[in-house]
Design brief:
Elements (H helix, E strand, L loop, with lengths): L2 E5 L4 H12 L3 E6 L18 E4 L5 H11 L3 E4 L6 H6 L1 H22 L4 E7 L22 H20 L2 E7 L2 E2 L8 H13 L6 E3 L5 E2 L2 E2 H13 L5 E4 L5 E2 H11 L8 E3 L17 H7 L7 H20 L1
Parallel strand pairs: 1-2, 1-4, 2-3, 4-5, 5-6, 6-11, 7-10, 8-13
Antiparallel strand pairs: 9-12
Helix pairs in contact: 1-7, 2-4, 4-5, 6-8, 6-10, 8-10
The protein binds NADP nicotinamide-adenine-dinucleotide phosphate.
NADP nicotinamide-adenine-dinucleotide phosphate binds next to helix 1 and strand 5.
């Protein structure tokens, strides 16, 4: 039975990936921070089928210990301070967790499990204000946030570990991906949560910053399969994963409110103070390489993705009030 080790298993992607790998017959071990608790909410359905080991990507010793106890065949490094907005307020923490945390993981794998295949969670935010549209694996990075800069550093260190030390490191340059397990601080989830509250009569409006911001939004439950496919490919490489279509925040609002029969213009208020210090436009991915060489094609449409998140928030809020 192959053994996978996942950092960030308590996050959106980590929980979907753990489910996916269990379905493929893997033994799954995840790194958890002590603060995550014994029963992280995203792992509720699979908690008794995965092994959790305490550790922190800020602490190399804990990573060495976790890998020695696990001896994995595949390592999926997903742990990060992953919220772009917070990275402007906490750039040093973001650099340490998201940037240096990757250096520590690569170092630990090189020492303990050098034959393991390693997945690095790179990000479209590395493209920042892009120099070309759409973006593919050869598009230069121009990050516009501390998060994007930390991810670009981590990406370069991962490629360097591949080239200098011969580690089997695949980097997934994933564009935004969402789902009902998305953190509540992200704009997509803030919107679907607000739509549910408004529909149930618990709120009247939502305040947003930049309605024109556009992203290439896919489904997290789809994209974890691409991560796995990258590690099954014989050659370690960089891979863009995207839908190839972008939508604005306004379009996300329109779809989410329409799903419950409401007009978004009656409930959305704009507050310029909520805008990011520097935002980006024109992010949309060209995932031809992943489609042609990995056979990966996203399944979930934009409207189905939005609807699944609204439905989940409606069910959660209604259940909490029963
Ligand atoms: P997420 O939901 O924010 O999950 C982040 C995970 O990292 C959580 O499990 C968190 O643990 C863990 N973590 C944070 N700090 C840690 C530390 N110091 N030590 C150990 N673990 C720590 O993120 P996600 O959306 O699943 O994304 C997964 C990865 O893909 C991240 O690296 C993200 O930057 C990257 N990515 C995401 C997207 C996207 O659109 N979702 C796009 C491109 C790349 P706790 O539960 O304890 O907080």
């Amino acid at each position: 039975m192959p053994h996978a080790f996942i950092t960030g298993i308590t996050g959106q992607d980590g929980s979907h990936l753990a489910e996916f790998l269990l379905g493929k017959g893997y033994a799954v071990t995840g790194l958890v921070r002590r603060t995550s608790g014994e029963y992280p909410w995203r792992l509720v359905g699979i908690r008794d089928r995965v092994t959790l080991i305490e550790g922190d990507v800020l602490d190399l010793g804990s990573l060495l210990g976790a890998l020695e106890a696990t001896r994995p065949d595949e390592v999926y490094h997903l742990a990060a301070q992953s919220f772009v907005g917070a990275s402007f307020e906490q750039p040093e923490l973001t650099a340490n967790v998201t940037g240096l945390g990757t250096v520590r993981m690569l170092d630990a794998v090189r020492r303990v499990a050098p034959k393991a295949r390693f997945y690095q969670a790179s990000s479209s935010e590395m493209f920042g204000q892009p120099v070309a549209t759409p973006q593919d694996e050869s598009t230069p990075f121009r990050p516009r946030s501390p998060y994007g800069a930390a991810k670009a550093f981590a990406h370069h260190m991962a490629v360097n570990a591949r080239e200098a030390h011969g580690l089997h490191v695949a980097c997934g340059i994933l564009f935004n991906h969402e789902g009902p397990r998305r953190g509540i601080e992200f704009v997509t989830r803030r919107i679907t949560d607000a739509v549910a509250r408004i529909k149930l009569g618990r709120a009247r409006e939502i305040t947003l910053g930049n309605l024109e911001a556009r992203r290439d939004w896919g489904a997290a439950s789809d994209y974890v399969e691409a991560m796995w496919r990258m590690l099954q490919h014989p050659e370690p490489d960089d891979w863009v994963v995207a839908t190839g279509t972008s939508h604005s925040v306004a379009e996300w609002c329109e779809a989410a409110f329409a799903h419950v029969g409401l007009d978004w213009r009656d409930h959305v208020r704009v507050d310029p103070a909520r805008r990011r210090p520097s935002d980006i436009s024109g992010l949309v991915g060209d995932a031809s390489r992943a489609r042609e060489r990995l056979g990966f094609v996203p399944k979930t449409s934009f409207n189905d993705l939005v609807a699944s998140m609204v439905d989940a928030d409606l069910a959660r809020i209604a259940a909490a009030e029963r």
